[in-house]
Amino acid sequence: MQAVVLREFGSAEVLRPGVVPDPAAEPGWVTVRLEAAALNWHDVLVRRGQYRSPLPHVLGADGAGVRTDTGEDVVIVPSLWWGDDESAPGARFEILGDHRPGTYAELVRVPADCLAPRPAGYSWAEAAALPLVGLTTYRALFTRARLRAGESLLVLGAGGGVATTAVALASGVGASVVVTSSSRVKIDQARALGASGGVLYAEAGWERAAKELSPGGCGFDVVLDPVGAWPEALAALRPGGRLVVLGASAAEHARVDVRKFYFGQYSLLGTTMGSPRDFAGLLRLLDEHSIAPPVIDRAFPLAEAAAAHRHLEQGGGFGKVVLLHG
Known about the structure:
Blueprint: E1 2-6, E2 15-19, E3 29-38, H1 41-48, E4 62-67, E5 73-76, E6 79-80, E7 94-95, E8 107-111, E9 115-117, H2 124-129, H3 131-144, E10 152-155, H4 161-172, E11 176-181, H5 184-193, E12 197-200, H6 206-212, E13 220-225, H7 230-235, E14 237-245, H8 258-263, E15 267-270, H9 276-288, E16 296-301, H10 305-314, E17 320-324
Parallel strand pairs: 10-11, 10-13, 11-12, 13-14, 14-15, 16-17
Antiparallel strand pairs: 1-2, 3-4, 3-8, 3-17, 4-5, 5-9, 6-7
Helix pairs in contact: 3-4, 3-9
GO molecular function, one term: oxidoreductase activity
Protein name: NADPH:quinone reductase-like Zn-dependent oxidoreductase
Domain Enoyl reductase (ER): 10-323
């Protein structure tokens, strides 16, 4: 089958079209003929060698296509072997595309319980863009932070897939949402998704400016931090608020005033991509509320995966980058 093959770790240019064997049949696993795949920053880290994937390798966690055994339209849930404990993934957990061939190919083979129906009305690109960011964001906001209608949410770094999904999901269930961004254009785009406003994080004191946009200026119930800005995020919370952390793209270490933390009665919640049961909860949420599909920033043909990775790494986009297989 045709695929994009990683034969060495490095820059985007190491992603080249090639031919690899079709997936072999295996009991309990299903082959999907892919129509689209979506990029995630996780793919960039795999490409760079951070996850020590076997070489040659096919990247890609997200995808949507047609089951070859039943003809059903499906999306792929890239959470493999989460385990029975919903509080955290088990020792066998891995993300599709880390060590097993992923979705940058015509075909992919996954466990049968890692498939879900394509949501009604979703294009192939939108369906492919949903799983990883949808699952990650749903777990962060609803399983971990317990966000409810009527509460307030600050999303750090509007523009990426998690941030745009967070705005859509939170506003869709009746929470008020404010974002931070590097540009006024992205803030306006977030408003179109349901945010009430935003602040520029490059400006000094942005956390105070954001807090002023919270209900009564008292701080947010929840701050979603995919970047690692803990001190500023805590400063934007109300007393007793929850900081939920799912990334460290800007900083891998943080200094926190311990006394202020415990006197503020804050909760600090770490989270990662969720379980198949979280994904079932996401699909129920989409059925019960009017929530826009994932925002597509740009689509590339599968053979142009290197260009898609360059576009993702340059930043500046709003929404998801996808690969179309047709």
